[in-house]
Specification:
The protein is built from eight helices and nine strands. With about 250 residues, the chain is α/β, with parallel strands linked by helices. The protein has a single domain, classed as Rossmann fold, CATH 3.40.50. The model has no long low-confidence stretch (mean pLDDT about 90). InterPro entries: NAD(P)-bd_dom_sf, SDR_fam.
Length: about 250
Protein backbone atom coordinates (compact mmCIF):
# COMPACT_ATOMS: atom_id res chain seq x y z
CA UNK A 1 0.00 0.00 0.00
CA UNK A 2 1.55 3.28 -1.14
CA UNK A 3 1.85 6.45 0.93
CA UNK A 4 -1.28 8.59 0.59
CA UNK A 5 -0.47 12.23 1.29
CA UNK A 6 -4.14 13.10 1.61
CA UNK A 7 -5.07 13.22 5.29
CA UNK A 8 -1.46 12.37 6.25
CA UNK A 9 0.25 13.87 9.29
CA UNK A 10 3.62 15.23 8.17
CA UNK A 11 6.73 16.68 9.79
CA UNK A 12 8.96 18.72 7.46
CA UNK A 13 12.34 20.07 8.57
CA UNK A 14 14.38 22.73 6.79
CA UNK A 15 11.10 24.24 5.66
CA UNK A 16 12.10 27.91 5.60
CA UNK A 17 13.87 28.00 2.21
CA UNK A 18 14.95 26.10 -0.88
CA UNK A 19 13.67 22.57 -1.38
CA UNK A 20 11.98 22.58 2.01
CA UNK A 21 9.95 25.72 1.29
CA UNK A 22 8.87 24.38 -2.10
CA UNK A 23 7.86 21.07 -0.51
CA UNK A 24 5.86 23.00 2.08
CA UNK A 25 4.04 25.00 -0.59
CA UNK A 26 3.15 21.84 -2.50
CA UNK A 27 2.13 19.85 0.57
CA UNK A 28 -0.24 22.66 1.55
CA UNK A 29 -2.22 21.82 -1.59
CA UNK A 30 -3.07 18.43 -0.07
CA UNK A 31 -5.66 17.85 2.64
CA UNK A 32 -2.98 16.98 5.19
CA UNK A 33 -1.68 18.26 8.52
CA UNK A 34 1.87 19.64 8.60
CA UNK A 35 4.35 20.61 11.28
CA UNK A 36 6.95 22.70 9.44
CA UNK A 37 10.17 23.57 11.22
CA UNK A 38 13.51 25.32 10.76
CA UNK A 39 15.73 27.57 12.80
CA UNK A 40 14.08 30.63 11.23
CA UNK A 41 10.45 29.76 10.49
CA UNK A 42 9.44 33.33 11.35
CA UNK A 43 10.98 34.38 8.01
CA UNK A 44 8.60 32.18 6.02
CA UNK A 45 5.92 33.98 4.06
CA UNK A 46 3.08 31.50 3.78
CA UNK A 47 -0.69 31.91 3.90
CA UNK A 48 -2.33 31.04 7.19
CA UNK A 49 -4.05 27.71 6.89
CA UNK A 50 -5.76 25.36 9.25
CA UNK A 51 -3.70 22.28 10.13
CA UNK A 52 -0.32 23.85 9.28
CA UNK A 53 1.91 24.60 12.26
CA UNK A 54 5.17 26.58 12.12
CA UNK A 55 7.73 26.18 14.89
CA UNK A 56 11.43 26.96 15.34
CA UNK A 57 13.74 24.08 16.28
CA UNK A 58 17.54 23.87 16.05
CA UNK A 59 18.02 20.26 14.98
CA UNK A 60 21.70 19.98 15.79
CA UNK A 61 20.65 19.35 19.40
CA UNK A 62 18.97 16.04 20.35
CA UNK A 63 16.80 17.82 22.91
CA UNK A 64 15.42 20.01 20.11
CA UNK A 65 14.64 16.94 17.98
CA UNK A 66 12.87 15.37 20.95
CA UNK A 67 10.97 18.63 21.35
CA UNK A 68 9.94 18.53 17.70
CA UNK A 69 8.48 15.05 18.10
CA UNK A 70 6.66 16.10 21.28
CA UNK A 71 5.25 19.17 19.53
CA UNK A 72 4.17 17.14 16.49
CA UNK A 73 2.34 14.60 18.63
CA UNK A 74 0.72 17.38 20.62
CA UNK A 75 -0.64 18.96 17.43
CA UNK A 76 -1.33 15.87 15.30
CA UNK A 77 -1.52 12.79 17.53
CA UNK A 78 0.64 10.70 15.19
CA UNK A 79 3.24 11.10 12.43
CA UNK A 80 2.80 9.31 9.09
CA UNK A 81 5.61 11.00 7.17
CA UNK A 82 8.81 12.64 8.38
CA UNK A 83 10.84 14.57 5.78
CA UNK A 84 14.36 15.27 7.07
CA UNK A 85 15.43 18.13 4.83
CA UNK A 86 17.41 20.31 7.26
CA UNK A 87 21.00 20.91 6.21
CA UNK A 88 23.64 23.42 5.20
CA UNK A 89 26.91 23.60 3.31
CA UNK A 90 30.41 25.03 3.58
CA UNK A 91 32.38 26.14 0.52
CA UNK A 92 35.89 26.40 1.84
CA UNK A 93 39.53 25.47 1.74
CA UNK A 94 40.34 23.35 4.79
CA UNK A 95 43.66 24.63 6.10
CA UNK A 96 43.54 23.85 9.81
CA UNK A 97 41.72 21.43 12.13
CA UNK A 98 38.59 22.83 13.76
CA UNK A 99 36.64 20.15 15.60
CA UNK A 100 33.59 22.30 16.34
CA UNK A 101 33.40 23.41 12.71
CA UNK A 102 33.40 19.77 11.56
CA UNK A 103 31.02 18.62 14.26
CA UNK A 104 28.40 21.29 13.56
CA UNK A 105 27.79 20.31 9.95
CA UNK A 106 27.66 16.60 10.81
CA UNK A 107 25.21 17.23 13.66
CA UNK A 108 22.79 19.02 11.34
CA UNK A 109 23.25 17.13 8.07
CA UNK A 110 23.87 13.61 9.33
CA UNK A 111 23.54 12.88 13.03
CA UNK A 112 20.29 14.80 13.43
CA UNK A 113 18.65 12.98 10.51
CA UNK A 114 19.82 9.58 11.76
CA UNK A 115 18.61 10.35 15.28
CA UNK A 116 15.21 11.39 13.92
CA UNK A 117 14.96 8.22 11.81
CA UNK A 118 15.59 5.98 14.82
CA UNK A 119 13.28 8.10 16.99
CA UNK A 120 10.54 7.69 14.40
CA UNK A 121 10.90 3.91 14.50
CA UNK A 122 10.86 3.86 18.29
CA UNK A 123 7.69 5.93 18.47
CA UNK A 124 5.80 4.21 15.65
CA UNK A 125 6.69 0.65 16.64
CA UNK A 126 5.11 -1.66 14.06
CA UNK A 127 2.82 1.02 12.63
CA UNK A 128 3.30 1.99 8.95
CA UNK A 129 5.22 5.21 8.24
CA UNK A 130 7.60 6.82 5.75
CA UNK A 131 10.86 8.54 6.66
CA UNK A 132 12.47 10.62 3.92
CA UNK A 133 16.11 11.69 4.17
CA UNK A 134 17.06 14.42 1.70
CA UNK A 135 20.66 13.56 0.94
CA UNK A 136 22.50 14.73 -2.20
CA UNK A 137 24.19 13.58 -5.37
CA UNK A 138 27.29 14.76 -3.51
CA UNK A 139 26.88 11.63 -1.42
CA UNK A 140 28.26 9.67 -4.38
CA UNK A 141 31.11 11.94 -5.45
CA UNK A 142 33.09 14.61 -3.63
CA UNK A 143 34.14 18.01 -5.00
CA UNK A 144 36.97 20.23 -3.75
CA UNK A 145 35.61 23.05 -1.64
CA UNK A 146 32.70 20.90 -0.55
CA UNK A 147 34.65 18.11 1.17
CA UNK A 148 32.89 18.32 4.53
CA UNK A 149 29.43 18.69 3.01
CA UNK A 150 30.01 15.74 0.69
CA UNK A 151 31.21 13.59 3.58
CA UNK A 152 28.04 14.33 5.58
CA UNK A 153 25.87 13.23 2.68
CA UNK A 154 27.97 10.13 1.98
CA UNK A 155 27.58 9.12 5.63
CA UNK A 156 23.81 9.66 5.50
CA UNK A 157 23.62 7.59 2.33
CA UNK A 158 25.58 4.78 3.99
CA UNK A 159 23.27 4.74 6.98
CA UNK A 160 20.15 4.55 4.84
CA UNK A 161 21.47 1.71 2.69
CA UNK A 162 21.66 -0.54 5.71
CA UNK A 163 18.97 0.81 8.02
CA UNK A 164 16.10 0.47 5.55
CA UNK A 165 16.39 -3.31 5.80
CA UNK A 166 15.88 -3.16 9.57
CA UNK A 167 12.34 -1.83 9.17
CA UNK A 168 9.04 -3.66 8.82
CA UNK A 169 7.70 -4.24 5.27
CA UNK A 170 5.14 -1.43 5.73
CA UNK A 171 7.78 1.05 6.94
CA UNK A 172 9.88 2.94 4.40
CA UNK A 173 13.21 4.77 4.66
CA UNK A 174 13.52 6.81 1.47
CA UNK A 175 16.69 8.58 0.32
CA UNK A 176 16.62 11.59 -2.02
CA UNK A 177 19.66 12.44 -4.16
CA UNK A 178 19.22 15.83 -5.87
CA UNK A 179 22.00 17.42 -7.87
CA UNK A 180 22.63 21.19 -7.68
CA UNK A 181 19.36 23.09 -7.32
CA UNK A 182 18.63 26.69 -8.33
CA UNK A 183 18.23 28.16 -4.84
CA UNK A 184 20.30 30.33 -2.49
CA UNK A 185 21.85 27.22 -0.93
CA UNK A 186 25.25 27.56 -2.58
CA UNK A 187 25.37 31.35 -2.23
CA UNK A 188 24.78 31.06 1.52
CA UNK A 189 27.71 28.64 1.64
CA UNK A 190 29.98 31.24 0.02
CA UNK A 191 29.96 29.95 -3.56
CA UNK A 192 28.77 32.31 -6.29
CA UNK A 193 29.19 29.77 -9.10
CA UNK A 194 27.47 26.47 -8.15
CA UNK A 195 28.30 23.24 -9.96
CA UNK A 196 26.41 22.50 -13.15
CA UNK A 197 23.97 21.25 -14.29
CA UNK A 198 21.32 22.69 -12.01
CA UNK A 199 17.64 21.84 -11.68
CA UNK A 200 14.69 24.00 -10.71
CA UNK A 201 13.45 23.67 -7.15
CA UNK A 202 9.92 23.09 -8.46
CA UNK A 203 11.03 20.05 -10.46
CA UNK A 204 12.97 18.63 -7.51
CA UNK A 205 10.08 19.04 -5.06
CA UNK A 206 7.61 17.54 -7.53
CA UNK A 207 9.87 14.52 -8.07
CA UNK A 208 10.34 14.03 -4.33
CA UNK A 209 6.61 13.98 -3.63
CA UNK A 210 5.97 11.63 -6.53
CA UNK A 211 8.67 9.29 -5.19
CA UNK A 212 7.21 9.44 -1.68
CA UNK A 213 3.77 8.51 -2.96
CA UNK A 214 5.25 5.48 -4.75
CA UNK A 215 7.32 4.40 -1.69
CA UNK A 216 10.53 4.52 -3.73
CA UNK A 217 13.59 3.59 -1.70
CA UNK A 218 15.78 5.99 -3.70
CA UNK A 219 14.57 9.15 -5.41
CA UNK A 220 16.66 10.81 -8.15
CA UNK A 221 15.30 14.14 -9.45
CA UNK A 222 17.92 13.97 -12.24
CA UNK A 223 17.55 10.89 -14.44
CA UNK A 224 20.82 11.80 -16.15
CA UNK A 225 22.70 11.70 -12.85
CA UNK A 226 21.17 8.31 -12.01
CA UNK A 227 22.17 6.96 -15.43
CA UNK A 228 25.77 8.19 -15.16
CA UNK A 229 26.13 7.00 -11.57
CA UNK A 230 24.82 3.57 -12.49
CA UNK A 231 26.34 2.90 -15.90
CA UNK A 232 29.10 5.47 -16.52
CA UNK A 233 30.45 6.61 -13.15
CA UNK A 234 33.72 7.69 -14.75
CA UNK A 235 31.86 10.61 -16.35
CA UNK A 236 31.21 12.06 -12.91
CA UNK A 237 34.95 12.58 -12.55
CA UNK A 238 34.80 15.19 -15.31
CA UNK A 239 32.76 17.34 -12.96
CA UNK A 240 35.42 16.90 -10.29
CA UNK A 241 38.11 18.16 -12.68
CA UNK A 242 36.01 21.21 -13.58
CA UNK A 243 35.41 22.03 -9.92
CA UNK A 244 39.10 21.51 -9.18
CA UNK A 245 40.05 24.27 -11.62
CA UNK A 246 37.36 26.58 -10.25
CA UNK A 247 38.39 25.84 -6.67
CA UNK A 248 42.04 26.71 -7.33
CA UNK A 249 40.96 29.98 -8.89
CA UNK A 250 38.50 30.99 -6.17
CA UNK A 251 40.28 29.61 -3.09
CA UNK A 252 44.01 29.48 -3.91
Amino acid sequence: MYMNLKNANIVLTGASSGIGKELLDRLMEYDCTIVATARTMEEVEAPERKNVYFKNFDLKHPSEIDGLFDYAFEKMGRIDLFIANAGFMYYEKIDSPDYEHIEEIFRVNTTGAIYAAVKMKEICGDRPYNFVAVSSGFGFISYPGYALYCSTKAALRGFGQGYKYELKPNQHYQSVYPIAVKTDFFRKAGCDAPPKPQQSVKHVAKTILRGIEKDKGEIYPSKSFWFMKTFMPYLLNLGVLMEKRKFRKNLP
